[in-house]
Amino acid sequence: MSYQGSFRVWRGDDQSGGLVDYRVEVNEGEVVLDIIHRLQATQAPDLAVRWNCKAGKCGSCSAEINGKPRLLCMTRMSTFTEDETITVTPLRTFPVEKDLVTDVSFNYEKSREIPAFAPPEGVAPGDYRMSQWDVERSQEFRKCIECFLCQDVCHVVRDHEDNKQHFAGPRFLMRITELDMHPLDAADRREAARTEHGIGWCNITKCCTEVCPEHIKITDNALIPLKERVADRYYDPIVWLGNKIRRR
Ligand code: SF4
Ligand code: F3S
Ligand code: FES
């Protein structure tokens, strides 16, 4: 069974743009990305959209549907009514390149600011040993497909361009947590988490967790534990004393 659906798609570039109305055929079982592809094929051949796997695994097709950050390929048309107008816009937090494609290099810059896994000296890769519990704990974080929906929704940068310089965003604070929890990582991650990557700016709104397509408990399992670790490091009198003595 098919019907003509109403869509409003943002068209434009880094200079100007606006919403354009379209009527597009919708068939049973389709997702929003199918509609965008039909729109390209039948009415708007120059419409720019980024996608790759159409299976919710590459993280490329991130956009906003009715103002909410979503993967276009994982948003079923059956979740809308036939008379609803569906608005598709680019991620708001990143600069637009063209139509639904944004420049997400902010995220790659933040990624590069985090030093890589640093094993202790003298332990060769084949000799790494860690408990199953530690393996499982970081496994959740490694499900991340780098769709950057969490980065897009977080109000710390969504509404405040100036904050981008001082805030890594939930995806990369989660990466720091993963490394800090790794029993073989010898680097001190906590000082940088506080001073360079802005963990203190997160006020636990949990919007990042709500939009994550991999259902990673970003706030509860990464951001809150990182806040606690940073607090332990700086404000726990025993840890503080230990650090002072060690530094001598
Ligand atoms: Fe996407 Fe979730 Fe990874 Fe954020 S943590 S980039 S929302 S998969
Ligand atoms: Fe932002 Fe997530 Fe914290 S949305 S404020 S990073 S809980
Ligand atoms: Fe790969 Fe949507 S196309 S996640």
UniProtKB/TrEMBL annotation:
<dbReference type="GO" id="GO:0046872">
    <property type="term" value="F:metal ion binding"/>
</dbReference>
<comment type="similarity">
    <text>Belongs to the succinate dehydrogenase/fumarate reductase iron-sulfur protein family.</text>
</comment>
<dbReference type="InterPro" id="IPR017896">
    <property type="entry name" value="4Fe4S_Fe-S-bd"/>
</dbReference>
<dbReference type="GO" id="GO:0022904">
    <property type="term" value="P:respiratory electron transport chain"/>
</dbReference>
<protein>
    <submittedName>
        <fullName>Succinate dehydrogenase/fumarate reductase iron-sulfur subunit</fullName>
    </submittedName>
</protein>
<dbReference type="GO" id="GO:0009055">
    <property type="term" value="F:electron transfer activity"/>
</dbReference>
<keyword id="KW-0001">2Fe-2S</keyword>
<dbReference type="GO" id="GO:0051537">
    <property type="term" value="F:2 iron, 2 sulfur cluster binding"/>
</dbReference>
<dbReference type="Pfam" id="PF13085">
    <property type="entry name" value="Fer2_3"/>
</dbReference>
<feature type="domain" description="2Fe-2S ferredoxin-type">
    <location>
        <begin position="5"/>
        <end position="92"/>
    </location>
</feature>
<dbReference type="GO" id="GO:0005886">
    <property type="term" value="C:plasma membrane"/>
</dbReference>
<dbReference type="InterPro" id="IPR036010">
    <property type="entry name" value="2Fe-2S_ferredoxin-like_sf"/>
</dbReference>
<keyword id="KW-0408">Iron</keyword>
<dbReference type="InterPro" id="IPR025192">
    <property type="entry name" value="Succ_DH/fum_Rdtase_N"/>
</dbReference>
<dbReference type="GO" id="GO:0006099">
    <property type="term" value="P:tricarboxylic acid cycle"/>
</dbReference>
<dbReference type="GO" id="GO:0016491">
    <property type="term" value="F:oxidoreductase activity"/>
</dbReference>
<keyword id="KW-0004">4Fe-4S</keyword>
<dbReference type="InterPro" id="IPR004489">
    <property type="entry name" value="Succ_DH/fum_Rdtase_Fe-S"/>
</dbReference>
<comment type="pathway">
    <text>Carbohydrate metabolism; tricarboxylic acid cycle.</text>
</comment>
<dbReference type="InterPro" id="IPR009051">
    <property type="entry name" value="Helical_ferredxn"/>
</dbReference>
<keyword id="KW-0560">Oxidoreductase</keyword>
<dbReference type="InterPro" id="IPR001041">
    <property type="entry name" value="2Fe-2S_ferredoxin-type"/>
</dbReference>
<keyword id="KW-0479">Metal-binding</keyword>
<dbReference type="Pfam" id="PF13183">
    <property type="entry name" value="Fer4_8"/>
</dbReference>
<dbReference type="InterPro" id="IPR050573">
    <property type="entry name" value="SDH/FRD_Iron-Sulfur"/>
</dbReference>
<dbReference type="InterPro" id="IPR006058">
    <property type="entry name" value="2Fe2S_fd_BS"/>
</dbReference>
<dbReference type="InterPro" id="IPR012675">
    <property type="entry name" value="Beta-grasp_dom_sf"/>
</dbReference>
<dbReference type="GO" id="GO:0051539">
    <property type="term" value="F:4 iron, 4 sulfur cluster binding"/>
</dbReference>
<keyword id="KW-0411">Iron-sulfur</keyword>
